[in-house]
TrEMBL record:
Species the sequence originates in: Anopheles coluzzii
Catalytic activity from the UniProt record: tRNA(Arg) + L-arginine + ATP = L-arginyl-tRNA(Arg) + AMP + diphosphate
Protein name: Probable arginine--tRNA ligase, cytoplasmic
A single MF term (Gene Ontology): ATP binding
Compartment(s): Cytoplasm, Cytosol
Signal peptide range in chain numbering: none
Pfam families: Arg_tRNA_synt_N, DALR_1, tRNA-synt_1d
Homology family: Belongs to the class-I aminoacyl-tRNA synthetase family.
Record's keyword terms, sorted: Aminoacyl-tRNA synthetase, ATP-binding, Coiled coil, Cytoplasm, Ligase, Nucleotide-binding, Protein biosynthesis
Biological-process GO terms, alphabetical: arginyl-tRNA aminoacylation
Top-level class of the enzyme under EC nomenclature: ligase
Length: 663
């Protein structure tokens, strides 16, 4: 592994060098437009030749390093990455004057191969600009001619249509890779490890934790699982709304309702009702309102009995949130808005001093770069801080104190502008540096009911999450009983299956939709056992797991022995098709790294399960006689099942699904 890491580092350095050299070559080439008698021209041309020569040396070094990685038994490299590299090199050799990186896509139909390189058209365009006439098909031919040396993962290349290069994967390469998954497990893709802070869930104290927060919880947790799997150092932050003026009225109301709250814990079970009561008083009673404001000042100045009252109120919500997190198995570190109080004071002073704040009708506002969009309100006209202030203090704390390289915020898409402005202001204030930091606002659409309207109960109230999860459990059990699973499973197994299905389907329904779109919450749909649902996948997985068990002998008891003594052959079309899907795992991971959209992983898992079911329908893994006794077991196929279950397991882990042994 150490060798592997250093080889990758080396490649990365070389790649950087190449980029630098390429840009220099470009600059030098631009010099070619100078008049003939320009003395600089000769120098530049010499420089150009020198750089080109240097580029070739670096490229051949890359090929050597790349070769050593491909031949090492890491068994889990990105196929798209490898093809991209080989094709880009071929482009550079065949068309040295063109600076185009190869684009590799997955073919839309098997007749176009497994992968495709469609760069010939782009290259032809570039050549045209350089006054070289060449059709895309000719370009493709030249490219393929350049690719005569065997590429480890490729069986053959074909030119099709207007100049597409169809790439067919090599079966023996596929067999080796599947064997490697069995021997060494799935190797984590090689990427630079980062310190990432994911801000998600983040409900508000004393207010409803609603389906929007549930979406944030599910998506955020899955993103964390994904990043943790890749080996990043992840801090999961629950940025709860636990500060602000509403605490004034809550504390004032608490003092009246439970005067001895300091010694006896007040029995507030329904904090939302308590909130509503205090709000009614706040809106109708001037004396109460005045007292509420005084309470805020006392709380913010840190007076003990006020802090105590505040904590009591937060505790009620905290407990409610925690039961939801426990049920969904989501881990979070609470660090609410209150955490930033002193930091808000500090950053306001700094922003003032640096001249970033402007007065606007008594408020202090801050514009982002180029004064685009709407400005942040940093200080309200009454001197108070806002949501914007806390996010400015938070971004600074996360980048400077926590030394994060990457910040992710998971909230509804409605907050996109807020975060873009925060990022923009943080750049202006030199807190955020684009060259050093990555920031993402991971937005998502609203949750709708089956009627296409905002998700509400029949009576029009917000749906309580505890009740929603309870309904999930009830409906999951109904489904299991319908399938007569209660007759086969023990009580314990049945409950395990119920929880796995209920929470699994709620999470999966959310994750499998493109998060940018609104999404219709429907228990009926998510509990269907056909189609891209958790139920279908959990059943498929359990079925795959049971195959080895049914084979008995070493298959059931000592899989390692089978792995050590079997050579996988993927002769049947359906075996090969399934294997090719499995081998896309790394590329799916790398895609999600870019766009943090987990529906790609759901589509991938679904594709694995459908490819598996095609394989299982056409290929015997076990043959039985009429009496139902096993007469033949096909070890290679059983191993393909084993590899499939390994890949599925990883994906389920990332999606937060918990498969059960029996279902
Ligand atoms: N750093 C942040 N602003 N995180 C998101 C907070 C979400 C906010 N509490 C809400 O309910 O909408």
């Amino acid at each position: 592994m150490a060798d592997f890491d250093s080889a990758t580092k080396c490649i990365r350095n070389i790649e950087k060098e190449i980029l630098l050299l390429q840009s220099e070559v470009l600059k030098t080439r631009e010099g070619l437009g100078l008049e003939d008698d320009n003395v600089e021209l000769k120098k530049l041309m010499e420089e150009n030749t020198r750089l080109k020569h240097r580029l070739e040396i670096v490229q051949s070094a890359i090929v050597q390093e790349g070769g050593s990685i491909a031949s090492s038994d890491s068994g889990n490299q990105s196929i798209v990455g490898e093809l991209q590299q080989v094709f880009t090199e071929a482009i550079q050799k065949a068309f040295p004057s063109v600076l185009v990186e190869a684009v590799i896509t997955i073919s839309s139909s098997p007749k176009f191969g497994d992968y495709q390189c469609n760069s010939a058209m782009q290259i032809a365009q570039h050549l045209k600009q350089l006054s070289v006439k060449s059709s895309p098909r000719e370009v493709a031919q030249k490219l393929v001619a350049e690719l005569q040396k065997p590429i480890p993962c490729v069986d053959r290349l074909e030119i099709a249509g207007a100049g597409y290069v169809n790439i067919f994967l090599s079966r023996s390469y596929g067999e080796q890779r599947i064997m490697s998954i069995l021997r060494h497990g799935i190797v984590v893709p090689l990427i630079e490890k980062k310190r990432v802070i994911v801000d998600f869930s983040s409900p508000n104290v004393a207010k409803e934790m609603h389906v929007g927060h549930l979406r944030s919880t599910i998506i955020g947790d899955s993103i964390c699982r994904f990043l943790e799997y890749l080996g990043h150092d992840v801090l999961r932050i629950n940025h709860i709304g636990d500060w602000g003026t509403q605490f004034g009225m809550l504390i004032a109301h608490l003092q009246d309702r439970f005067p001895n709250f300091q010694t006896e814990s007040p029995p507030i079970s329904d904090l939302q009702a308590f909130y509503k009561e205090s709000k009614v008083r706040f809106d109708s009673d001037e004396v109460f309102k005045k007292r509420a404001y005084e309470c805020v000042v006392k709380l913010q100045s840190g007076e003990l009995s006020y802090l105590k009252a505040w904590n009591l109120i937060c505790d009620v919500s905290r407990k409610e949130f925690q039961t939801i997190y426990n049920r969904l198995d989501v881990k979070l570190v609470e660090r609410g808005e209150s955490f930033y109080q002193s930091r808000m004071e500090k950053i306001v002073e700094e922003l003032k001093q640096d001249g970033f704040l402007e007065e606007d009708e008594g408020r202090l506002i801050m514009w982002g770069e180029n004064r685009a969009g709407i400005p942040l309100t940093i200080v309200k006209s009454d001197g108070g801080f806002t949501y914007d202030t806390s996010d400015m203090a938070a971004i600074k704390q996360r980048l400077q104190e926590e030394k994060a390289d990457w910040l992710i915020y998971v909230t509804d898409a409605g907050q996109a502008t807020h975060f873009q402005t925060i990022f923009s202001c943080a750049k202006r204030a030199k807190i955020l540096q684009e060259s050093k930091h990555r920031v993402d606002h991971v937005g998502f659409g609203v949750v709708l009911g089956e009627d296409g309207k905002k998700f509400k109960t029949r009576s029009g109230d917000t749906v309580k999450l505890t009740e929603l999860l309870n309904e999930g459990l009830r409906r999951a059990m109904e489904k299991l009983v319908q399938k007569e699973r209660n007759l086969v499973l023990t009580q314990e197994e049945l409950v395990a299956a119920q929880e796995s299905v209920a929470y699994g389907c709620i999470k999966y329904a959310d994750l499998s939709h493109n998060r940018n779109n609104e999404y219709v919450f429907s228990f009926d749909k998510m509990l269907e056992d056909k189609g891209n649902t958790a139920v279908y996948l959990l059943y498929a997985y359990t079925r795959i797991r049971s195959i080895a068990r049914k084979c008995g002998g070493d298959f059931a008891n000592d899989m390692q022995k089978v792995i050590d003594s079997t050579v996988i052959k993927l002769d049947h079309e359906k075996e090969w098709k399934l294997a090719k899907v499995l081998l896309r795992f790394t590329d799916v991971m790398l895609l999600i790294m870019k766009n943090l959209s987990l529906h790609h992983l759901c589509e991938f898992v679904y594709e694995i399960c459908t490819a598996f079911s095609e394989f299982y329908d056409s290929c015997y893994c076990i043959e039985k006689n009429k009496q139902g006794e096993i007469i033949t077991v096909y070890p290679s196929r059983v191993l393909l099942c084993e590899a499939t279950s390994k890949v599925l397991e990883k994906c389920f882990d990332i999606l937060g699904l918990k498969p059960v042994h029996k279902i």
